[in-house]
Write a structure and sequence with these properties.
The protein has 352 residues and is an alpha/beta fold. 59% of the residues lie in helices and 9% in strands. The protein has two domains: 140 residues; 181 residues, P-loop containing nucleotide triphosphate hydrolases (Rossmann fold, 3-Layer(aba) Sandwich). The two termini are 25 Å apart. This is AAA+ ATPase domain-containing protein.
Length: 352
């Protein structure tokens, strides 16, 4: 049983590392990285090992040799996350740069000759370690569940991409004092009288970050329905963004939530932007963007039309699994949600 739990946790850890590597590939970091191909090798091996973990989980393996293999893989994956953490620290030490490199700490390190050699050596050693672990896995006759997982992922991703949340609050999801404290703190920040734009004349963005299912949406809903928020903002807009957002659909949803009619002017992007501006012109607005996976949903789609329409004091509250999304949106504050205390988790289970 403990092996299955560990396998599931490690699968999540491997996914985290793979997502970071995937972002690096988009940025063509392999061209910047001296040890050519090491990143690709690490990514391929991690995918295979992640699929083997899925098989170990499915088969409920309790064999001691398999447990030892899983422990070795756990150590290797922690090494991988240590590399990511090291790059994050290096990036933070260099100050709050706003270039694209800072959105991915690994990319930052690869671009910096002071760190690239050290990080490169670490990744090379990790690859050798993963090679040994993968060789040992042959003895267990694991099935690579990649194709099956991909099919399941495709079906669930099409489902999750249509996941719609709203500003309606489900009281049965609320437990403990922590959410009350977090709500009070964030409401105070959102309504505080201060300089309402950044130096770049942008609307102030606040973020709630944490892993999937930890309660980011519930906290945002609690804030959205808070009495102080109701009093302070003349318009409130709730948008489910999700992983595969579409710019046109996002604009249409924003118009509808703002009380406008997106059908009136036609469906060109320019017309939709003008309609959105008209619906919110002069209003002190709270915009909640729930489940954002890409900062471009704000930066490339909504920021420009809203910057020329919203009244001073307007705010954006984003929920995201990835703090780099919040950084990409120039969030002035990132509130991290941690796991529930044991007693609150038990209370939530009983309530549900």
């Amino acid at each position: 049983h403990s092996t299955c739990i560990m396998a599931t946790v490690l699968s999540s850890l491997a996914s985290y590392v793979l997502n970071m590597l995937a972002e690096m590939t988009k940025e063509q970091v392999t061209l910047l990285f001296g040890a050519s191909g090491q990143m690709d090798k690490m990514s391929i091996k991690l995918k295979d090992l992640k699929n083997f973990l899925a098989d170990a989980d499915r088969r409920n393996i309790t064999d001691h040799t398999v447990q030892e293999w899983v422990r070795e893989l756990k150590g290797a994956l922690y090494d991988a996350t240590n590399i990511l953490d090291l790059c994050q620290l290096k990036a933070m030490q260099r100050g709050k740069h706003r270039d694209a490199g800072c959105f991915n700490p690994l990319l930052f390190c690869m671009r910096n000759p002071l760190f690239a050699h050290d990080i490169g050596n670490r990744i090379k050693k990790l690859n050798q370690r993963l090679d040994d672990i993968k060789e040992r896995s042959a003895a267990f006759n694991f099935i690579n569940l990649g194709s099956e997982e991909d099919r399941r992922r495709n079906s669930t991703s099409s489902h999750s991409s249509k996941r719609e949340t709203s500003g309606e609050l489900n009281e049965s999801a609320l437990v403990g004092e922590k959410i009350e404290e977090d709500t009070r703190s964030l409401v105070e920040m959102l309504t505080k009288e201060e300089q309402t734009t950044t130096a770049h004349n942008k609307i102030m963005v606040f973020a709630i970050a944490g892993v999937g299912g930890i309660g980011k949406t519930t906290l945002a809903q609690k804030i959205f329905n808070d009495d102080t928020i109701q009093h302070e903002f003349t318009k409130k807009v709730w948008l489910s963004v999700n992983q595969d957002f579409n710019a046109t659909e996002l604009l249409k949803k924003a118009i509808t939530e703002a009380g406008g009619d997106y059908k009136a002017p036609g469906n060109t992007r320019g017309a939709l932007e003008r309609t959105l501006k008209k619906a919110l012109m002069g209003h002190k607005t709270l915009l909640v963007m729930d489940d954002v996976w890409d900062h471009k949903a704000w930066v490339d789609v909504l920021e420009t039309p809203l910057a020329h329409a919203l009244a001073p004091g307007s705010r954006v509250l984003v929920t995201t699994r990835n703090y780099m999304v919040a950084r990409g949106m120039n969030a002035v504050d990132i509130h991290r949600i941690d796991k529930l205390k044991d007693e609150d988790a038990w209370l939530l289970l009983k309530k549900q």
